Amino acid sequence: MRTTNRSRVLRATVAGCFAVAGIAAMSTAAPADTLPVVSVSDATVVEPVTGNAKLEFTVSIPEAAAATVRVRFTTSDGTAVRPGDYNKRASTVTIPKGQTTRIVNVIVKRDALDEADETVNVTLTDPKNATLGDDVGIGTIVDSD
């Protein structure tokens, strides 16, 4: 196959357009420091005398975002141990565009043991349209026995 000057120019022009498009796409990406910072609060609940109670952790960004924010969360043992003290949770929290908070509930179970206060953790990971701030919320279960 014979290559002409015209085909070389065409290939160079097409390659140049892709290169320019790539540079333009990279330069319009928002820097990480302009994304909202998503954090989780600490929480406290008194151990229920009967039934269950809820630790309510607030996942928040400081001001309403221009895009929907998503962040994964998981619970883990502190001094409280699952499944006896609380129910395990792992999911995604979605803060819709224009809003700032969502609540993550962790069910705390009644036990008849006289013990010290206990803790359970909620950890945030894998943020979308945000960066992580305070990524661990500590939930305190105040003993009622």
Care to describe what's here?
- 16% of the residues lie in helices and 42% in strands.
- Residues 3-30 have low confidence and may be disordered.
- By secondary structure, it is an alpha+beta fold.
- The strands form 2 sheets. A 5-stranded mixed sheet has the order 2-9-7-4-5, with no helix packed on it. A 4-stranded mixed sheet has the order 6-3-1-8, with no helix packed on it.
List keywords for this structure.
145 residues; alpha+beta; five-stranded mixed sheet; four-stranded mixed sheet
What is the structure about, briefly put?
The protein is α+β, with helices and mostly antiparallel strands. The chain has one helix spanning 5-27, and strands at 37-40, 43-46, 52-60, 69-77, 90-95, 101-109, 118-128, 131-132, 136-142. The chain is elongated, with a radius of gyration of 25 Å.
Shape: elongated
| Strand line-up across the major sheet | 2-9-7-4-5
Average predicted local confidence, pLDDT: 84
Please write the string of helix (H) and strand (E) elements.
Answer: HEEEEEEEEE
Q: How much is the radius of gyration in Å?
A: 25 Å
How much of the sequence lies in strands comes to 35-45%
Record field, number of beta strands: 9
Report low-confidence residues grouped into runs of 5 or more.
3-30
- Give the helix proportion (percent range): 10-25%
- The secondary structure category is alpha+beta
Q: Which helices and strands occur, and which strands form pairs?
A:
Layout: H1 5-27, E1 37-40, E2 43-46, E3 52-60, E4 69-77, E5 90-95, E6 101-109, E7 118-128, E8 131-132, E9 136-142
Parallel strand pairs: 1-8, 2-9
Antiparallel strand pairs: 1-3, 3-6, 4-5, 4-7, 7-9
